[in-house]
# Entry
Amino acid sequence: MNKPIIRVFAVLLVLFGLLAYFTTRWTVIDRAALQDNPQNKRELLAQQRIARGSIEAASGTVLARSIRRSDGTYARHYPENGLFAQTVGYSFLNPGTAGLERFYNGQLTGRTAGLEGTLRKLQGKRQQGNDLQTALDPQAQQVAIDQLAGRAGAVVALDPRSGRVKVMASIPSYDPNVLRSAKQTARLNSAPGAPLLNRTTAGLYPPGSTFKIVTAAAAIDSGLYEPSSTVNGDNGVEISGVPLNNDGGQSFGEVDLTTALTQSVNTVWAQVGERVGKRRISRYMERFGFGSPVPVDLPPSERLASGLYCSPDGNREVVSPTDSCVDIGRASIGQDKLLATPLQMAMVASAVANRGILMQPAIATRTIDPEGRTAYENTPQRFSRVMSAASAEKLTAMMQRVVQEGTGTAAALSGIEVAGKTGTAERDVINNITQPWFIAFAPASDPQVAIAVTIEKTVGGFGGTDAAPIAKAVMESLLR
Amino acid sequence: MSARNRELFGLLPASLLIVAGFGAVFLQERTQLNNLSLTYGAIFLGLCFAAHLIIRARLPDADPYLLPIIAVLASIGLVMIYRLNETLARDQAQWFVIGLVAFAATIILLRDYRLLERYRYLIAAASIALLLLPRVPGIGQQANGAYLSISLGPVSFQPAEFAKIGIIIFLASYLRDTRALLVSRKRYGITLPRLKHIGPLLLVWGLAMLMLVFIRDLGSSLMFFGGFLAMLYVATDRLIFPVVGFGLFGVGAWFFATTVGHVGDRISAWQHPFDPRLYEQIGGSYQIAQSLFAQADGGLWGQGFGQALISVGDSPILPAAQTDLIYAVIVNELGLIGSIALLLVYVLLIERGFRVAVLARDSFSKLLATGLTTVVALQVFVIVGGVTKVIPLTGVTLPFVSYGGSSIVANFVILALLLLISDRARREARR
# Structure
């Protein structure tokens, strides 16, 4: 009977080998995949036991902080409620993390890698997060929110010299503190107007005539046109075989480009765009940042690419302006299949303001560790040289005229030169629903702020009448 | 060195484990634990020593390694439970006392364990009754769809833990008598026993199926039936028996998996633990998914004693961490290295168990030792396999490690029986 006993033992050994193999599989072989599984909340749960760093505005105003609870875990609190809701984001067990909270999770939880982390552990120190400092301006943000007055829309303002983001307002908004409750989270997820959406970076809208700045930059910087070059601005010029109308059906005759920008003459800029050509427009769009997710320190899922969306299968995918589906004349005046995020349009203004050099937008400036040392410095980075300084100066002069005597006079500030461009995208011609835009920078001679404003829907509103006053108020608050 | 002195020295690793483990957990959570809790460790060491003295007095020739191996397992379990919940550790220490009483009673009352053979039908009937108790209205309890425990007043216990011992005793005795008859008749070149000989064995198969239906627990029935097949194979030395047996079990399991909702749910949760629908469902795949996540965090070296994330506030992250999922906690805290070490301790235990079976002189002792060892081994396989997604997860305890009174007491009785068999075998071998 001993032989079968030993065989039974052998079979059991094989079974135990199986156990050892499967344990190895979960702990070593498939470890990374399991840890990345979206259902795996262990890391998030573990983070509940870490004193997460706070998030602060430029003035030192605390936008997010952690409060210790009696059971030793920490809860996130947002003292300014919904002021920077979509930008700061949130960090809760459910629904997880978003915004700066997500992008800077490693810094905020103080995940110190390598030797220093090990040393801290050996010393028995609790893991503690780094504080995140930003350039955000709560006062100007409040002005932007007040000015939007509940209308769905977005305002982005940044410093063109550094790319530091000052204002990032997206309406409708929400109070992140309520996300602590699963019920409220579910309600917000399906709320009308998508309050969780950061419209400044993930709202895609037809930019309308504000895009003419991109066309003008390509036209002048490529040497094909001067601000004084004249083009026929009559109504009904055929673009891609279809007559194009000017606003109000007005004919301007032969006009120079400065006038054409000041009066926002569609037919002129469509013809300029056609002559400059798809390839050049494409190159300049790329330099301005079109075609790839808008570059800013927010999670990839919250940033969309501006550009031409024309895949017929409904895929929301940006195509090159050289694609055959593109009507380059109409794209040049911000129509056709062109869509842009408000931050992208602020970058357009910013590049002109900063003498042709586009700085990469950045919300955070640095992180500070619990000992008060700088843990991470987000130094300003150049995104691209879009155009020569000379071309930028010419464009600046043209844009100043828009505010002095053109469509954008409502943005004029007393004592400060403002350069800007209006836009009014048609959303529903029959019901006269428009999307007003305004992009600008100031002071024109020494720009300190670049801004983009848009309101999703107005009945018969214009960029000059609806968006420009908002830009004016926000710039005033930032320059005061 | 004599066997008993070797056993005494063998208790050293367990003592070190207990001292180091309790010390580590206590230092880690000093703020929340009181000094008194350290006495649970002391009680445990005292019990090990008491068990040693009982063996020294009554079974001087018994295997010297069984007790130390089990002491190591139990100390790992006690430290883990202490780390999870101080109160549970106190209960567990108390159960060790009761387990020791059962251990001593078994050794003293069953001086000649072969007496058991006389009462085999009574034992079999009692075991079957025990198995069915959880379905009796009023005292039976259902947990996660399975009927495994009964409650009598304040005490609740799992009768299956004791039934398994009774059934093994019955089978060992029955197979001792019929093993020659089972292989005596050949038809068409294969072994084909008469119906009246195979009948009781078919009854055991039926019993396993009945467990599936009535108790609704795949793991337990797999454990019972596997133990039975191992004994049948050892009794007859014919591969045909376990092959046909597994076939029958497979057919039955498949039938119930497709018809009994609870069994089918467990199987789909096993196949697709991350399916959102199953994950959200109550009694779905949440537990197995969390088990795998916890193991992944353990990695090669583990996160260290007391580091595993078990719950946040009152909501459990690892449900049933102290019973079903204790292996996942061990993997999380001690890593692959620690858990492989634990599995090796079990392999050592099984090896000692089969050594007892090999050394035993008479068929009944051999079959009994084989059956007891195999069932313990299969129980480890069923729960560790369930936690590591080798097989569908079912709620059995990890022998000597998991929290649970019935399990501790029953396993101490198994230990006593193995020591009784080994004492006789080694004494006869020496003679």
User: Anything to note?
Assistant: Chain B has one domain: 3-272+299-430. The beta strands of chain B are 140-143, 146-152, 155-157, 186-187, 190-191, 311-312, 315-316. Residues 172 and 367 of chain B are 5 Å apart (CA to CA).
